[in-house]
Amino acid sequence: MSPAVSLARLFAAALALASVGLVALLLLAVTREIPWGAAIFAALALLAGLMWRLRRPMQEAVVIAAAADRLAEVDAAGTVRTPEIIEIAAGLARARALVRERDEEMARRAAVAERILEALPDPVLLLDRDRRVVRANTAARELLGIGVTAGDLAGFLRAPPVLAAADAVLADNIARDIAYKVDVPVERHFGVLITPIAPVAGTAPTAEDRTSPRAVVRLVDLTTVKRAEEMRADFAANASHELKTPLAALIGSIETLRGPAHDDAKARDRFLGLMAAQAERMRRLVNDLLALSSIELVEHAPPTTPVAVTPIVRNVVQALEIPAKARDMRITVTADEALPPVPGDADQLAQLIQNLLDNAIKYGSAGSEIAVRLTAGAGPTGMPGKVVAVSVADRGDGIPPEHIPRLTERFYRVDSARSREAGGTGLGLAIVKHILSRHRGQLKVDSEVGIGSTFTAYLPAAARTADSAAA
Ligand code: ADP
Predict the structure, then answer these.
(1) pTM to 2 decimal places
(2) Beta strands in 222-329 (DSSP E)
(3) C-alpha–C-alpha distance, residues 281 and 232, integer Å
């Protein structure tokens, strides 16, 4: 149904259109060209006719205006907001939110990947297809001195076999594993694993592909493993060598006794004495080897029972008075009162103190004094908390400083002839080191050539208990 157009609007429209005719009729009536009655009649007829003619166009105009009103809903800010436009805008907003979410998710994943790379203890590098380093974690940057702007791998890793392997991996996408050795500042051995990163399937190549990672280089530090292997091999060689010498002496003596010295009572006594000394040397060596391996077996499990160190020290000192006297030496013991107990293995602690005292007796000057001190206090660097320190000081030749870092190595001796002559096995301080390692303690060596040496064993004190506090 057509909408109604009000009479007033129709009249106003007709009046506007007929204005010229009406003025003409008015002039004619005023000049008496036509009578007033005819003029009024003509004017009314003209208006009525026009109103009738304008009725339909004006109805259509109202319809159009209503449609236009519906189409152009204008909000307060003057923005056109038709339902279609609202729908399109909502769709765009949803798409924008999705893109933002995806961007945030990608940024999150990139941050996680970055953190994983940084957290890896092994040096890791990412190479692009031109062998340029595009990423390196902290371990790699520190090891290879890679700065912010990285370049060709050759600039950081000057090892032709590794570079050739990297080229081969980038060319044929087959992983390679290669050995790499660094000489400075200390010798280090690495296994270099180079693994290809295949391009993501289904994605079209982009300009970024030139710099996207195409291979992962992981350096695995094999220095400790290599050193352990070397030490094991050295140890087996050294131990058999140490046993071979007295064994050869024993066999030689037995042959002499069976042969030329068979009927020589004097020679027999001499050879029997020699054999006893060599057998004793072998016994000591076997004992030390067994002690070392039994300590190593439990090294990972620190003792937990609190033990008092002073009585252990006094017992050992008492037992060593005879060998000390044999060299005209005297052992003095001074101990802090109320020394805290330490979580310890009493037998191993006795062995530790005995080994240090044995050395003081062996390498101290004849007739000198050996001072044993037991003190409680703060520990050295790396040992937080209270410690008990047991120091053994002798007056003797002392040890040249270059030897000190190696004293606890198995079979390491400053003067091999002197050690053997004194009945040393070369294992005493290695045993001390392992006992301390099990007790989570430390060894400190202070020595001055021509004056003497002080060996101090630091042991963590037991946590104060109600009992020890009361004691
Ligand atoms: P050894 O059985 O030869 O004494 P250790 O492992 O006990 O073996 O000691 C290693 C080396 O350290 C000894 O050979 C000796 O050269 C040196 N050493 C150890 N303690 C002392 C000390 N108190 N004074 C001088 N040198 C020492």
Answers:
(1) 0.61
(2) 306-307
(3) 22
End-to-end CA distance of the chain: 112
> Distance of CA 416 to CAs 237, 279, 412, Å?
16, 19, 8
What is residue 467's predicted lDDT score, i.e. its pLDDT? 44
Q: How far is the CA of 454 from the centre of ligand 1 (A)?
A: 12
Residues 193, 127: Cα–Cα separation, whole Å: 13
Q: How far is the CA of 364 from the centre of ligand 1 (A)?
A: 10
User: Pairing mode, if any, of strands 330-335 and 369-378?
Assistant: parallel
As a whole-number percent, the residues of the chain with pLDDT over 70 amount to 92
For 165-186, write each residue's pLDDT tens digit.
999 999 999 999 999 988 877 7
DSSP assignment string, 156-177: T---HHHHHHHHHHHHH---EE
Please work out whether the CB of residue 122 comes within 6 Å of at least one atom of ligand 1: no
- When pLDDT is averaged across residues 41-65 and rounded to a whole number, the result is 87
User: Tokens 């050996």 appear where?
Assistant: 370
Q: How many C-beta neighbours within 10 Å does residue 8 have?
A: 8
Q: In whole angstroms, what is the distance from residue 225 CA to residue 314 CA? A: 41
**Judging by beta carbons within 10 Å of its beta carbon (0-12, 13-18, 19+), is residue 290 exposed, middle or buried?**
exposed
Query: How do residues 140-164 score in pLDDT, each as one tens digit?
Result: 998 888 876 678 999 988 899 999 9
The sign one gets for the Cα dihedral 180, 186, 187, 191 is negative
Q: Which of 351, 358, 359, 413 to mutate to test the pocket of ligand 1 (most atoms within 8 A of CB)?
A: 359
- pLDDT beyond 50 at 470: no
Taking alpha carbons only, the member of 4, 10, 1 closest to residue 62 is 4
- 322 token code pair: 């005879």
Q: Which residues contact 214 (CB under 8 A, 6 or more apart)?
A: 127, 128, 129, 170, 196, 197, 199
pLDDT value at residue 471: 38
According to DSSP H, which parts of 72-174 are helical?
A: 83-119, 138-144, 160-172
Nearest CA to ligand 1 atom 8: 426
Regarding the beta carbon of 456 and ligand 1, being less than 6 Å apart is answered no
The answer to whether 436 and 457 have CB atoms below 8 angstroms apart is: yes
Contact 375, 459 (CB under 8 A): no
Between CA 228 and CA 180 the distance in angstroms is: 18
> Side-chain half-sphere of 373: how many Cα atoms within 13 Å?
12
How many other CB atoms are there within 10 angstroms of residue 257's CB atom? 16
Tokens found for residue 256:
């002499």
- The fraction of the chain above a pLDDT of 90, given in percent, is 59
